[in-house]
């Protein structure tokens, strides 16, 4: 069974969820039956700074298995020129099985849509 914590799957999940919140303008929204909450944490010190965005996604539908994931995006930089130290994206399955999340992704893909490319996934990680 394939894992879902890879760049392409994360990008595809985000594409579906952010379609209803394209400007990232709100911290709470619902998309494709998933309750979404986005929190941003920032720190700026004398030598470095970081931003961590956390997207909590919870799918609850009576006829289907429920699941919950947490997607984190980290960006660390240092120095006056803001040299990039770390730029990472990760996913943690909190409840259920990865197959339940993959089934939801398949159901929610646009008709005729194709999975995101590796370039899309890389750009998604640079947000």
Quick gist of this model?
The chain has 127 residues and is α+β, with helices and mostly antiparallel strands. 24% of the residues lie in helices and 41% in strands. Helix 1 crosses helix 3 (118-125).
Molecular structure report:
The chain has 127 residues and is an alpha+beta fold. It has one domain (7-125). 24% of the residues lie in helices and 41% in strands. The protein is built from 3 helices and 5 strands, in the order H-E-E-E-E-E-H-H. The chain has helices at 7-18, 98-108, 118-125, and strands at 28-31, 34-44, 48-59, 67-78, 83-95. A hairpin with a 7-residue loop joins strand 3 and strand 4. The longest helix has 12 residues, at 7-18. The two termini are 29 Å apart. The model is unreliable at 115-127 (pLDDT under 50).
Give the fraction of residues assigned to helices.
10-25%
User: Main sheet: which strands, in order across?
Assistant: 1-2-3-4-5
What is the count of distinct domains? 1
Arithmetic mean pLDDT:
86
Element pattern in H and E: HEEEEEHH
Which stretches are poorly predicted, pLDDT < 50 over at least 5 residues?
Answer: 115-127
Distance between the termini: 29 Å
Structural class based on helices, strands and sheet pairing: alpha+beta
Strand content: 35-45%
Number of helices: 3
Radius of gyration: 16 Å
How many strands, which pairing sense, and closed or not: the largest β-sheet? 5 strands, antiparallel
Number of strands: 5
What attributes characterize this protein structure?
127 residues, alpha+beta, 3 helices
């Amino acid at each position: 069974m394939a894992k879902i914590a890879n760049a392409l799957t994360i990008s595809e999940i985000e594409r579906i969820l952010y379609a209803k919140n394209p400007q990232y303008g709100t911290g709470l929204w619902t998309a494709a039956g998933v309750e979404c909450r986005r929190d941003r944490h920032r720190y700026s010190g004398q030598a470095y700074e970081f931003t961590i965005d956390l997207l909590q996604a919870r799918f609850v539908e009576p006829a289907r298995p429920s699941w919950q994931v947490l997607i984190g995006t980290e960006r660390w930089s240092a120095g006056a020129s803001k040299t990039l130290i770390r730029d990472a994206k990760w996913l943690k399955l909190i409840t259920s099985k990865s197959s339940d999340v993959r089934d939801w992704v398949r159901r929610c893909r646009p008709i005729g849509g194709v999975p995101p490319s590796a370039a899309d996934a890389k750009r998604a990680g640079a947000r």
